[in-house]
Each structure stands twice: as C-alpha cells, then as structure tokens.
Amino acid sequence: MTVRAFSTRVLGGRSLVYDPATELTHLAPQVLPPGRCWLDDTQVTAWMAVFQRQVATAVPFNVCWSPIVRCNLTCPQCLDDKTVEELRGTERARIAKILATSGTLGLDISGGEPLLLRDLPALGRTLRSAGAVVSCTTNGWHLARRAPELVGIFDAIRVSLDGPTAATHDHWRGAGSFERACEGVRVAARAGLPVQLHYVVMRSTADGMQQMADLAGRLGAGGVTFLQMLPIGDGRALRDTQMLSDAQARTRLDAVTPPPGVRVRLRTREIADAFTVVRADGRVWRNTDQANEISALRRLIRAEDLHLPVPVLQGSAS
Questions:
Q1: CA dist 45 to 21, 23, 24, 269, Å?
Q2: In whole angstroms, what is the distance from residue 54 CA to residue 312 CA?
Q3: Residues with Cβ < 8 Å from 182, sequence gap 6 or more?
Q4: pLDDT at 311 over 70
Q5: Omega of the bond prior to 112 within 30 degrees of 0, cis?
Q6: Model-level pTM?
Q7: pLDDT for 262-293, tens place per residue?
Q8: Fewest beta carbons within 10 Å, which of 6, 55, 135, 318?
Q9: 80: how many CB neighbours lie within 10 A of its CB?
C-alpha cells in the first residue's frame, strides 16, 4: 500500500479522483472532500476510470502546460512544435496563476525539457496553490541533480524512455541519455517522489514493453504509461512507418505481465482526443481527430479559455 496525493472534485453526487502519476481520473464510490487529498493508491486503482468525453463537465480533468520549447535532446517523435514562441518568465508566472485557479484536477509541466527552467519550483508551487495535484514530465537528463528541490512541490514525476536498454533508448535520444534518465528515476524515487515511466509505443519499440515494465520495477518506479504515438509535431514524419492502431497497442499491452508493485496502462489516441495543452506561446491547443491533429484555439487570458465546447461532451458517467 502506498498513500500519496490525489485531487478530487464533486460532480453529480460522486467524486472524480485524479491520479497525477497515471493521468487517470477515477470515479469514487463515495463523496470525498474536494481538493488535494491523500489516498491509498491500491484503492484508487480499483475504482472505475472515466475519460473526459464520458463526463458532462466543460472543465478539463487535466491540462498539460509546456512553458518551454528548448530541450537538450532531439527526439524524432517529439510532440512539441519547435516554431512556437517561448514566453518570458513574467508571462509564465501569469499563466501559472490562471491554471492554478482553473478548477482542473491535475496540471502537468512538460516541454521541451522543463528541468531547464530555473523557475520550475516556483511555477510548481503556484500551480498547486488552489488544490490541484501537479506533475512534471521530463527526459530525465537533469533529474538526479534537480530531484531534491522538487520534493514537496510535485506530486509525481513522469520520465520518458524510448527503450528498456541503452542501445534502444539512445538510438532515439542520443548517447548517455538512458543512464542519465535511469539514475534520475532512482534518485527521485529514493527522495520520495512518485515516478511513472512513459514509453511511446511504435512499431520499432512495441517489442520492449515487457522489458520496460521490468525496468520500472528495478528502478523503483510505480508504473509505466504506454503512450500511443501521436502524429503531432516532429511525430508527423513517423505517421506512415511507426504508428500502431489502438487495437494493436492493446493487444501488445495484454501480453505484458508487470512485476509486483508496478502498474501499467495504455493511453490510446482515442483517450487522448480532446486533451487540452497550453504551449509555450501561451495559447490553448487541443488534440483533435482522435489525437491525430492538434489545433490552436486562443490565447490563455482567463480560466474559461480552457473550457471544452459543449459538442465535445457525450454524456455523463455519474
């Protein structure tokens, strides 16, 4: 049993419970106090997971904020648009305040590479000030060095790996990146930060899913999120050669036997549809067309700019 931070919101007489490690939102069988709370993750995992399109609320369950375009690695499947303008620190602070009061259950700082931001701890503190749980998605290169200053601010760290060995991972991310990421996971886990590995499922990486689950156990990570490749950003160039269908990816996941203490999940493109992103230019973007495309919507001026349109909602799970 592991007790850690989750975020809750009451909707239709029941509580939505968001997990900052797995990005899953669960439907609790009873009403819980809204805001941040500490729960047994084994218990939460047993509750039914619901997705944004199933619940009649315009407020996104979670938002990915990418305040930085810069990155020390060059990954061919990167979702980020390198042509997007990167705003200055004062604008980042403004956006963090809006996100903090948006009513969103979970907020993730991504990139680019967020650990290159000197103001990352300050941004994290602002994001969690109104009760949301906060995570950070990183390539892990600088995680061992920066993990101590993230404790008590971030509720989960997600580390992206593209292979269970140095040979496979470094093929995509560059020499030395695997060992740096693994050491970062070890240091973060020892410091008490819940760590989730992220692994993009492609034709060339799907055979390593079992090994990735085993690696998570050895490193002290709590689980692995297997991510369907999205043909967005640099990933467009891999659309025809690397993409698996959601059904093919589920079949691959069904063959994985995770070691004790490690939980695995698959984020399909279907689930990623309508996912809300705030990019480094301060504009709200949203995945469309079963997450095969992403569209810029508007500049983030107020929390309502994050809201999903009514046509997106397909009914209530309550």
A1: 11, 12, 9, 21
A2: 10
A3: 140, 215, 219
A4: no
A5: yes
A6: 0.93
A7: 999 999 988 898 899 999 999 999 998 888 88
A8: 318
A9: 23
